[in-house]
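Hey all, sorry for the wall of text incoming. These are the two entities for the joint prediction.
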Amino acid sequence: MSDNMHKYSATSGIQQEEPLLFEHAHEAPESISLPGVQGNAPSSLDAFKRKKAANIPGLSEPETVRHFVRLSQWNHGIETGFYPLGSCTMKYNPRVNEQIARLPGLAHVHPDQPEDSVQGILGLLHELQGWLAEISGFTDVTLQPAAGAHGELVGLMMIRKCLDARGEQKRKKVLVPDSAHGTNPASAALCGMYTVEIKSGADGRIDLDELKKHLDDDVAALMMTNPNTAGTFESDIKEICQLVHDAGGLVYGDGANLNALVGVARPGDMGLDCLHINVHKTFSTPHGGGGPGAGPVAVNDTLKPFLPVPRIEKHGDVYTVLTEDEQSIGTVLSTLGQSGVYMRANAYISAFGHNHIHKIAQDAVLNANYVLSRLKDVYHVPFEGLCKHECLLTDEWQNKHGVKTLDIAKRLIDLGFHPMTVYFPLIVHGAMLIEPTETESKETLDSFCDAMLEIAAQCEAGDTQALHDAPMRPIRRRLDETQAARKPVLVWQD
Amino acid sequence: MRYLPHTDSDRQAMLESMGHSHIMELFADIPSEFHTKLGSLNLPDALSEAGIVKKFTKAAEKNRHAGNTRCFLGGGTYHHFVPAVVDYVISRGEFLTAYTPYQPEIAQGTLQALFEYQTMIARLTGMDVSNASMYEAATATAEAALMARRVTRKTRTVIAGSVNPRYRRVTENYLSRLEGDYVEVGMGKFGTDLSKVIAEIDEKTACVIVQYPDFYGSVYDLAPLREACDANKCLMVVAFSDVSAFGLIESPGAYGADIVVGSGQALGIPMAFGGPHLGVFACKQKYLRQMPGRVCGLTTDADGKRGFVLTLSTREQHIRREKATSNICTNQGLMCTAAATYMTLMGDAGLATVANHSAAALDLLVSKLPSSVSAADGAHYNETVLSFESKEKRDAFIAEARKQDIFAGIPLETIEKDSDGKHLLVATTEMIEGADINDYISAMEVAS
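and here's what came out:
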């Protein structure tokens, strides 16, 4: 291990082992006390009673707290340290957002309460709907999709319905650049459409000639991410949209990378027809170890008639929920959407306002370019030029010392950082996609870059054992993923 | 701006180190015609933290909520008790602010919690395996229908009319762009008639979807359905709205369900005006590789110690792309942690208490109904349909109850469009006390 470990922020302090809760070796204590009608279920349910208990252990309150607190200490989160995951946008999650989302008048509201009893929360959701449209440059927004990939599906459903309304049922081809997120083709398939991959040009951008080759009477849509997953802006965006429209198709925007543009430029102005927005990325709602997120979709006038229901409208000072709409694609979730997530997004935008919101993109792009400029002489940069809010490197120069992206990633863990996104985008070999976001200080970025430079120097010196052995410091070392997949064990057997 | 750590001199130094003098030079690759004039967006002025708290407090105070009313609303979302420990655990930054556990060595906390969640959900629903959650119940139901198509290579979906109409609408919507039949079986009055469902099954049927307890809270014997599914080689999919039921009544797995889907919101997750909630998805071991969504699996590390990873990713969109089991690339991770914490606190005994109190409250309410109001027949868990003499009488009751801060139920036609306006869907949980029921019945008497 490195002698100058103190330079970095990792700790190797107290690490407790903690058994599975099923392994705690005593019987369940007296059950938790609960309010309510202290009686037994009606006798009509006797015939249906559970014959065997579910065998859920039941720990006392102090044991439960200790169990989960210990588990939490094995996690890296954005509150624990730097999280430069490209394409994922892990930024600081303001604590006031958590506080306001838990106000009883927002957290304990039933979705089927009468409209006059929920005017406050409807107002906040409607306000956010309008702000998202304004920020993205579109006409209207649906808050229903529960996640980014769900937003993709909803966007494509609207495109499908729009084409059907034009009498163009035949159009079933969705063009997807090879740098796209894997959800794009999967979403298209769910809409009964098929995808054709468009190869990126030598600069990592969409190649107009390549695009033209695929534009014909079958084209339903182009799904594009801009800035793309290589971190570069598709500067030909106007022409790209024009070409697709001229061919009779629509342009779907994967809004995963809106953080690079917020307050500075608007996808809706560039000719896109719709865009999903990952609110957990751009608007700081916490990711929770895998969710919840939310994937609202913004649309232009072309797609507006097809928005899903229910959706919130304002008439005078009164908010109402529209449940039916003639051309709507229908309903895609049980409720209006992940309201709790939207409260946090609303609070984040409120904190910036029109006067500061562009600083999100400015600092995010500044930080990404700064990291790139500090690392570009020691790590291979596949595409030259400015990057947007994330920068792409590869392991090409480290390969000759037998070191791969995965080794670099795991070594970063020992040095106190969450690794960058690895092996994505697929268009470059050994990809490392780094996204610092706007909420990191120069001190943190310098510390991360120092760690990356140290790793590169170790490679050059042929001192690579620590890289192959990494990580050494967390509670568990490299985990055997093949074994997990070959003989899947998803539940505990006593 | 308080969330941004840079000073202007930091920014200037960083720019100069890259040979730039102005920050907008970093946006030169965006054509100038698309540059928004900075500060020109139609958004309000920035708020201070105090300003944010004030704004949201004011809005929250405009809402009535389960804390200052008596909530008899169900229909898919239920006001169950959330112990303080649950919110404490999921508020810990290490759970709250972590990403998907793609680097398992520094995500063992999330991963072990997911593994524990999967285990407890499998046990509660009586199934072999569970995934690490779906968005919510309606999309989970739709995904179950899609999974059945993959497993059976057949394309006909039969769904009982007593499945929550919202789950039916979403499922129908998901299937509408794919080839195959979608058949809804009309049910008659507020319950499930399995013989009608069974009559619709044929050899082209991929799955039959029923709800248990059904949308009206009705509980019935699922055994005949298993036989019919076997006879036609189709999958038996059982949906549910309030998972707390399985603390008391027999699990869908015990009846031989192939796939079980539903809402886990009852497990320590606030109603939050509809979300985020928790979609539960469990199935038999033999269908594991066709199950959508993320799963956490047990393995060992380089030192031979037990550990956990996300696994079976070869089914997923980032590998299989258009051939993936679904387009889903997220789950409700934090909600899984909440549910795991809740179930750990409750244990079998606590879950049984929740279920008993919830069912007992409904029983008490129904026993006190005046003769002018009838409840649906048969065994019910914690939800039923009350029928009034007329829409006017029902609405008068709803209004009277409202005066006493009681949300009396959901007018059925708001969820089930073709229902006439005489019916009220009413639900009870352990949060409903005897006194609340007395007030409910008094309001009914005042209104009549």
